């Protein structure tokens, strides 16, 4: 070998035409430079042909490279295995760090929210209206269809059981209260969470990857006032309106099922509804709606700010955002159910 031998000079050496010899001597006197990839390639070719080789007049650097290659079978990669206590400690540390990060995020958010209340001109109303439309009203068709389907399915099961008990008229107030208190707001919140929480996380994550957030910080813009607050206020404002429409659709679907199953007319349904179902049941669902919107927005924005500078974390935290939003919606709904039951509302 002579000159420089690197990964670009493979074709200049006819390794496939090597003679079938048990041992080969390679003259390296005129070899100026050799890289690691060429040395590995040469060693593998000769091993495949069962040829041993010897380097003649080679420099010490060349000998060191080939010595390392020939001894590579001696090196073993020992997989790192952690004990149960080590894994438990890592998990506890990650959870504690996550709680502290969220409290830090929530603290900055509260400060920015008070600034907006004290100085409303700081709020970007164009961004607020955009997110009300994009994250709220555009989710209405899917949410209404979902509420109608779930209401029909639950109403069918409820009406059949009440018919067997001999009280089909009781299905009116039972299904109406269930639609106003639970099915309308809760099902709609789940749909909005799956749609908007993932959208918020992905949008903010891409802004972090493209370094838009860093640019905003350098220019002195507040992340929370420009990114988090418009999304938060948009869902808090728009969710009660969406819940009101979802309640109406759920009631209509329930009334339709009751009419088909029990021959109770719409007039009878409306009369019994006004007689036995109070307006307070509608307010129960509407009161929960802003809290659902707040949970969805905070979780979506927080997970978006957690994303690191790679595309893999976008998918990870977007999935985690949806799961977390659904979980906290269920928790908030359970808390409200307990409180309203406790105070007989």
UniProtKB/TrEMBL annotation:
<feature type="transmembrane region" description="Helical">
    <location>
        <begin position="139"/>
        <end position="163"/>
    </location>
</feature>
<dbReference type="GO" id="GO:0005548">
    <property type="term" value="F:phospholipid transporter activity"/>
</dbReference>
<dbReference type="GO" id="GO:0043190">
    <property type="term" value="C:ATP-binding cassette (ABC) transporter complex"/>
</dbReference>
<keyword id="KW-0472">Membrane</keyword>
<dbReference type="InterPro" id="IPR003453">
    <property type="entry name" value="ABC_MlaE_roteobac"/>
</dbReference>
<dbReference type="InterPro" id="IPR030802">
    <property type="entry name" value="Permease_MalE"/>
</dbReference>
<feature type="transmembrane region" description="Helical">
    <location>
        <begin position="317"/>
        <end position="340"/>
    </location>
</feature>
<dbReference type="Pfam" id="PF02405">
    <property type="entry name" value="MlaE"/>
</dbReference>
<keyword id="KW-1133">Transmembrane helix</keyword>
<feature type="transmembrane region" description="Helical">
    <location>
        <begin position="223"/>
        <end position="245"/>
    </location>
</feature>
<comment type="similarity">
    <text>Belongs to the MlaE permease family.</text>
</comment>
<feature type="transmembrane region" description="Helical">
    <location>
        <begin position="282"/>
        <end position="305"/>
    </location>
</feature>
<protein>
    <submittedName>
        <fullName>ABC transporter permease</fullName>
    </submittedName>
</protein>
<keyword id="KW-0812">Transmembrane</keyword>
<feature type="transmembrane region" description="Helical">
    <location>
        <begin position="99"/>
        <end position="118"/>
    </location>
</feature>
